[in-house]
């Protein structure tokens, strides 16, 4: 007799009001995917340029060499800064690690190859 007073568990709850939707989760902090991608792209450009400088001897015949070299220094600086910023990533850590490596490689190549060969080619 006591069970007859309870509602049937298979019947839909018609008189139960719907619950309010919970607020969406906050945007996670530490999402630096854009910074990592910038570090990777600019790092690849800088590394490709310095490989070109090292392997091709006709670089001195380029007309806009001074502007290209200054642009590579700027890209290397951007890549290095973005690579260091990638260390603060809490999400997409593999991408952040790749951004850091590309940024540091671009910075080191810019210092080792780019500085001396750039000064030599600019003169």
UniProtKB/TrEMBL annotation:
The keyword Membrane applies. Residues 1-30 are annotated as: Disordered. Keywords: Membrane, Transmembrane, Transmembrane helix. The chain crosses the membrane at residues 34-53, 65-88, 95-116. This is Uncharacterized protein. It comes from Microbacterium testaceum (Aureobacterium testaceum). The lineage of its organism: Bacteria, Bacillati, Actinomycetota, Actinomycetes, Micrococcales.
